[in-house]
Amino acid sequence: MVAQVWVVAPSTDAANRVAGFIAPIGDAIALVSAAVADYNFPPQPVIVFDVDLQDPAVIKLVREALRRMTDPISIFCVNEKNRQQAVQTNALGAAAVITRPINPDRLVRTIRDCLPVRRGPSRAAARPAPVAPAPKVDPKDPSQSVSIGSGVLTHFFEGMASGRAVNGSVVTNAVTAIQASIDVVGLDQWLEDVRRYHTGTFQHCLLVTGISAAFARRLGLDDKARAALTTAAILHDIGKAKIPLQILDKAGKLTEAEFHIMKRHAAAGAAYLESHKVVSPDIIAMVRHHHEQLDGSGYPDGLTGAQISPLTRMLTIADVFAALIEVRNYKLPLTAEKAYGLLQEMARAGKLDTTLVAAFAPVAKEITVAAAGALQRKAF
User: Fold this and answer.
1) Can you spell out the DSSP letters for 176-224?
2) Residue 361's domain spans which residues?
3) Which of 170, 270, 327, 352 has a beta carbon 3.0–4.6 Å from 288's, enabling a disulfide?
4) CATH of the domain at 111
5) pTM of the complete model beyond 0.85
6) Of 56 and 189, which is predicted with more confidence?
7) What counts of helices (H) and strands (E) characterise the chain?
8) Do both 61 and 162 map to the same domain?
9) Residues 83, 151: one domain?
């Protein structure tokens, strides 16, 4: 049981509603947002914030309140698929994030899981790693490892945007959880959970991560190589934190000038990882070169043939395939069959590794995609 949990929301009714979810594990104290400024919290309070994180006044109120507390364990509720809010929670030092509408069981589980993560070290001592994955993850519940993966992305995107140092151990924990879950529930079910809760860049990064983990397993890579590929996959697009949102989220084809800016993300992400020494040089190289193609037509370095490592070639295949099957606001996803056909065309054109594309076929066969608004089974 948790002794006490505080719930902060814009109104008493809203706070009481969320507080009711917490009753099974402890006493829930409902507070309106305005009361936080003068409330005297005990050390290490567990607080659920269900507030508007797009309101600058609310953000300032929460930030100042947290600064006055001793080792707070803060859990934030955010709108589904809202990257701006997710990044803001990380800047506020969130222990965990859950999406609205709030699922009572997930909220209770999140509170329980956060306790061993944030107890002990002071808030200051925990820097520069404010995001910490839950130490216990049920591989049969893909939503848990998906949530951890999303937290890692938030952590690194915010760190990339601000230049702040990040903790590489959170990636290691996430990769372990993701691989274990895919091994238990299968790639298709894991990707379905990704599609349910994420969109845009986060959806793409998580799709590439899951596909890469499954691809590595299919090829029988050893644990070290599989972990390296999966780590590179989850981090491969963090450089997009430096790309203007009007380009990143544009609902249509980029202009030549916009695409020139977009292409900077691969080198930018690698440079950030190199400067903070949080992953190995091999992983950094994969992040930098995931858009290279065997015929030299890729970027940022125009590498050819043997200059591109086997793991990087695998990451490129996963990246291209994920982009083809994912849901975007300006295009319908391709079926897995059609997406795989395009991979084969690129291999025949000398852009992708022919042997690896052939080896990828069983992975593609595992996947269903949302087509015309409905899940449709691939027709292999």
Assistant:
1) HHHHHHHHHH-HHHHHHHHHHH--HHHHHHHHHHHHHHHHHHHTT--HH
2) 142-380
3) 270
4) 3.40.50.2300
5) no
6) 189
7) 17, 7
8) no
9) no
